[in-house]
Amino acid sequence: MSNESNIERHTIAVLVDNEAGVLARVIGLFSGRGYNIESLTVAEVDQAEHTSRITIVTVGTPMVIEQIKAQLARLVPVHKVVDLTVDTKAVEREMALIKVTGSGEKRVEALRLSDAFRARVIDTTHNSFVFEVTGAPDKIDAFIGLMRPLGLVDVSRTGVVAIARGPEAM
Amino acid sequence: MAAQELTGAEIVIKALVDQGVDTIFGYPGGAVLPIYDALFQQNKIRHILVRHEQGAVHAAEGYARSTGKPGVVLVTSGPGATNAVTGLTDALMDSIPLVCLTGQVATHLIGNDAFQECDTVGITRPCTKHNWLVNSAKELTRVMHEAFYVATNGRPGPVVIDIPKDVQFQKAEYVGPQNVVHKTYRPKVKGDIEAIKAAVDLIATAKKPIFYTGGGIINSGPFASQLLREFVQLTGFPITSTLMGLGAYPASDKQWLGMLGMHGTYEANNAMHDCDVMINIGARFDDRVTGRIDAFAPNSKKIHIDIDASSINKIIHADIGIVGDAGHVLEDMIRIWKSKAVKIDKSALADWWRQIDHWRDRRSLDYKKSDEIIKPQYAIERLYQLTKDRETYITTEVGQHQMWAAQHYHFEKPNRWLTSGGLGTMGYGLPAAIGVQIAHPDALVIDIAGEASIQMCIQEISTAMQFMAPVKIFILNNEYMGMVRQWQELLHGGRYSHSYSESLPDFVKLAEAFGAVGIRAKTPGELDDKIKQMIDTPGPVVFDCVVDKFENCYPMIPSGAAHNEMILGDDPEAAMVTEEGKMLV
Ligand SMILES: Cc1ncc(C[n+]2csc(CCOP(=O)(O)OP(=O)(O)O)c2C)c(N)n1
Ligand SMILES: [Mg+2]
């Protein structure tokens, strides 16, 4: 029942028990049922409780998004599923490490633009920079776009992490 | 409770006993020898030795579905585990609670491609409700008890516990099941009361209502079936059910329309198509039921009650979705219905019944009778007439015979009908029948089979012999993979590519080779006597019922068609399959 016109992008946070295979379960759910993953990040967030938080950015029709949430919620090691795109206004951040090579004008221009994006230089040689840039995904997209003609050679992105605004916990 | 130090293998056995298990189905091998040794030294658990691990899982399914208790399987690593995969997938699709214990190579060998190693948790992750690899005996108690909890609570399903051989030897403390609480898994059993009230209000306005029920009622337990009967009779509404739900409502009742779906009755499917309020309890809008989605009950409001939230709005939009156990929700619904003293539109309902009777008059299950050859439908009818007054359980294989059994054998009680609905697994019926018979030694257990399907797990006749499980294998032998042939007729110009059952064994001699009894019937005239002979035989019987080779199963909704576009047996020329329909299974 996919209606191409009403595709939405959602950021979903999943709190899971950090047991063996839990990530494979989540990823297997998406591949097995043909859902999209735009990005997925995961790390332990509570050592004492052994819980990890997975942040998934996915696209689909409202019916598919609802399915994804219901399917995630019924996995046995899942504590909680929150749709950060629906339930709250959330802040989303991503970090990228971006390597640019070149010299002369282009090198100067890359450095100047990085300043405008509040990117930090974390490694440098005579003919290369590694920038660290943080922000919403579209800001990172924009920065990468600007670096492309200036000698972009390598990109590593974390994928989105997100959290709800306001005092409430997940 | 004083701490008890036991070996991993002993913990397994103790946990099984504490979980109320008295029967397991299995097959030994190197990686489970310690557990087999522990089994040898006790007498609380009976082990049924199958002849192939697929058989163990189906037998456990049969045991589970006929008793309402979880089925337990024990197999070795590698090939033992991979052979179990079909059964596990079958149980997942049909929501059957199973606990499957698999042996694994020792922990220090995992990942080394050791002898008979396979990634069992990796392979079974998508075909189980949950699975565990147990890394130390310390975890074993908890995992064992959790496994039973997960398999049986919420929407039931199969779970796998993969136990490395060294863990089976390690010693650890055993704790009883009462102290184990699951960290995350808390399925919702009580439905939301506001939603149930809204559902009652909607039902009260119905002019053309229908109950559409499924396996969820059976899984909820006999009480849910009882409540269903009460509610359906309270409303006076018509009721149909899926293949998996047969028996929840008595087939002899006048409100019963028969099964719906691809081979359902004309009245059930047309009533679904034309209804204005649909009350789905424990069914999942499977594609065998809905036919073409965009033409499915187009003018109806739908109430969907399911214990699995992900079933609601998966395929068909529900106007009112209620997440909860069928029994609990029905209980609340009846209470609210009574307290509101609902008045239904009696004259609209009478009109609706008149319309339904009109569809009934089409007699969609009728077929051309014959004095010379046995019509498969006739064989099922006779089998039904001659066994219905006994404590009878019916299992099936997969194909035309399965559909004819669903159409012409009628069930009055839940848990008496066992068939592979979701996965459609040929080979299910015989081992499932053995599982039923082990649980109900005095019952009459019949596997209605096809000559092709029965060969998939035929080796289990040997299991039936060993454990004196007097199952009756009733083969509708049409010398074809009939269902495949029917589709080839419908979709592929009658080119019967590899669907003829060539080089069949002589089933009577085959039975005798196993030490069972073989009976063959070739004419309608001798059928009754031979069926009686089968019933009166104390041990396992293989009944080779030679039937019309070319009979097709009608009525039928062809793939990609709507409920009101059925092909009827007396008018098969009307078959219209669209190009899109051909793509569907
Ligand atoms: C394991 C498996 N393989 C293949 C199929 C596809 N299939 C469905 S019905 C059928 C033919 C079954 O033939 P038979 O058992 O003789 O039953 P009939 O339709 O003739 O009654 C086949 C091959 C299946 N359902 N299961
Ligand atoms: Mg056949």
From TrEMBL, chain A:
Source superkingdom: Bacteria
UniProt-listed SUPFAM superfamilies: ACT-like
Boundaries of every ACT domain copy: 11-86
Single Gene Ontology MF annotation: acetolactate synthase activity
This protein's pathway: Amino-acid biosynthesis; L-valine biosynthesis; L-valine from pyruvate: step 1/4; Amino-acid biosynthesis; L-isoleucine biosynthesis; L-isoleucine from 2-oxobutanoate: step 1/4
Keyword Isomerase: no
Cellular-component GO terms for this entry: cytosol
Family, similarity comment: Belongs to the acetolactate synthase small subunit family.
NCBIfam families, alphabetized: acolac_sm, PRK11895.1
Functional description taken from the UniProt entry: Catalyzes the conversion of 2 pyruvate molecules into acetolactate in the first common step of the biosynthetic pathway of the branched-amino acids such as leucine, isoleucine, and valine.
Complex formation: Dimer of large and small chains.
Protein name: Acetolactate synthase small subunit
Automatic annotation (TrEMBL), chain B:
Keyword Thylakoid listed: no
One cellular-component annotation, GO: acetolactate synthase complex
A single GO BP: isoleucine biosynthetic process
Domain Thiamine pyrophosphate enzyme central: 196-332
Taxonomic superkingdom: Bacteria
Keyword field: Amino-acid biosynthesis, Branched-chain amino acid biosynthesis, FAD, Flavoprotein, Magnesium, Metal-binding, Thiamine pyrophosphate, Transferase
Cofactor: thiamine diphosphate; Mg(2+)
Pathway field: Amino-acid biosynthesis; L-valine biosynthesis; L-valine from pyruvate: step 1/4; Amino-acid biosynthesis; L-isoleucine biosynthesis; L-isoleucine from 2-oxobutanoate: step 1/4
Cofactor note: Binds 1 thiamine pyrophosphate per subunit.
Molecular function in Gene Ontology: acetolactate synthase activity; flavin adenine dinucleotide binding; magnesium ion binding; thiamine pyrophosphate binding
Positions of the Thiamine pyrophosphate enzyme TPP-binding domain: 398-545
Reaction(s) this enzyme catalyzes, per UniProt: 2 pyruvate + H(+) = (2S)-2-acetolactate + CO2
Family: Belongs to the TPP enzyme family.
Family annotation (NCBIfam families): acolac_lg (TIGR00118), PRK09107.1 (NF006581)
Record's protein name: Acetolactate synthase
Organism whose genome encodes this protein: Parvibaculum sedimenti
